[in-house]
Amino acid sequence: MLWEKQQEVHGKDEMKKDVKSKTYRMKICFAIGRLTNGGAERAVSIIAGGLADKGHEVYLYVFAKSPADYAVDERVKIQYMCNSYEDYEKIPFTGRVRRFRKYLKEISPDAAAGFIQAGYALYIASFGMKLKRAASLRTSPGKRNAKLDRVRTFLNDQWFRSADAVVLQCEGQRMYTLAEKWKHVVVIGNPLSEKIRQADMHPDYGMCRNLVMAGRLEKEKNYPMAFRAVKMLQKSGTDVRLHIYGIGQEKDRLKALAARYGLEDRIIFHGWASDMLPEYKKYDLFLMTSHYEGMPNALIEAMGAGMLCISTDCPTGPSDLIQNGVNGYLVKAGDAESLARLIQKAVSMKPSERAAVGVRARESVITEYACGKIIDKWEALFQELLE
Q1: What DSSP string describes 94-127?
Q2: Which single residue of 48, 119, 199, 281 has CA 20 to 30 Å from 207?
Q3: What are the distances in angstroms from CA 346 to CA 12, 52, 107, 263, 318?
Q4: CB-count exposure of residue 121 (10 Å: 0-12, 13-18, 19+)
Q5: What is the DSSP letter of 221?
Q6: 3-state DSSP assignment of residue 232
């Protein structure tokens, strides 16, 4: 391994000097199930590319290829287990682990990080290997095993306990993890792309009638709460349109629900977009109505774009980002009535007032979640583990 070769040349004391001066390369592997339609996937694509840009040898192992994968820096060496999710589903769990283990043996990384289901797969596939492993918590801690069966729940718990480090996404997650027997816990937020940091401030179109949501179409995102709020606004005479970007298992059910509410012309499904920045510029107000989150990438990006944002105060993430009434608004999860009132409040604001909230939103995230800053934290974590 690159790390061990450096040790042989420099010796232990000299190696510490190299760690501080960052004059060596690390061999790092990231693993994830897919590279599309999600905040974790977006974060991995940015972090891997950023570390490669800093001169490290970076590998990315993706279980299933998708037609709309996020773009990744060409210096990152990407390997797909399967060319489609359908092919991936045909392979038994033991076969997937064998393929992953063979790959790890071939590249022999110094350190590896597993995201979502690739985490506990990394735990099994790397058993007995000499590499440092980092687990990344991508949802509210209490919901870590929400979609896993009994066996996978056990494996996931073992993975987080055995990992050399567990990366949380926000400080709000710490209180939920104090009782966990995890070795080393660090907080590293999601990176905000340089493209968003460099973009012009979000324009205010004056009327504030077009709302936008972005995220996977899954139950935990609680889109029906937004539908109910739009229906209430319609009944009160406030004409708004809700535009939704994302794909997922709830798509058909949500379309049927919109029709049942008589909102087919007011709720528009646009599918998935790999780059939301040009889409955000078309709309006036960003909504997020989740039951729970990790650290919502879509919300960070909307704030970074300078949008006025309203989010549920769900565990975890939004309250780390939004100071209620200052750089956005928080509402109780499930409270569609209060959401409708907040939307009405935003509609009634002067354009300059909405713009001021958007400016404060942008200022609050573009520094804290700057791409370079987040990548530096990942680099420092791997260096710490290897040291």
Answers
A1: HHHHHHHHHHHHHH--SEEEEETHHHHHHHHHTT
A2: 199
A3: 60, 42, 53, 21, 19
A4: buried
A5: G
A6: helix
Phi, psi (degrees; rounded to nearest 5) at 260? -65, -35
Q: Give the tokens for residue 240.
A: 């708004």
The per-residue pLDDT for range 278-311, each reduced to its tens digit, is: 999 999 999 999 999 988 999 999 999 999 999 9
The verdict on pTM exceeding 0.90 is: no
Cα distance between residue 57 and residue 28, in whole Å: 6
The answer to whether 244 touches 223, Cβ cutoff 8 Å, is yes
**What DSSP character marks residue 141?**
G
Q: Are 288 and 318 in contact (CB under 8 A)?
A: yes
Region of residue 227 (phi > 0: left; psi between -120 and 50: alpha; otherwise: beta): alpha
Q: What are phi and psi of 144, to 5 degrees?
A: -55, -35
Q: Closest Cα partner for 101 from 137, 69, 84, 126?
A: 126
Sign of CA dihedral 193, 199, 201, 207: negative
Contact 325, 70 (CB under 8 A): no
pLDDT of 33-85, one tens digit each?
999 888 889 999 999 999 999 999 999 999 999 988 999 999 999 999 999 99
Q: Is the pLDDT of residue 321 over 80?
A: yes
Q: Which residues contact 184 (CB under 8 A, 6 or more apart)?
A: 164, 165, 166, 385
Determine the Cα–Cα distance for residues 134 and 166; give it in Å rounded to an integer: 6
Give the DSSP per-residue string, 176-190. HHTTS--S-EEE--P
**Which DSSP string do the residues of 326-359 spell out, in sequence order?**
TTBEEE-TT-HHHHHHHHHHHHHS-HHHHHHHHH
Which amino acid is residue 327, in one-letter code?
A: N
Distance of CA 297 to the CA centre of its chain: 5
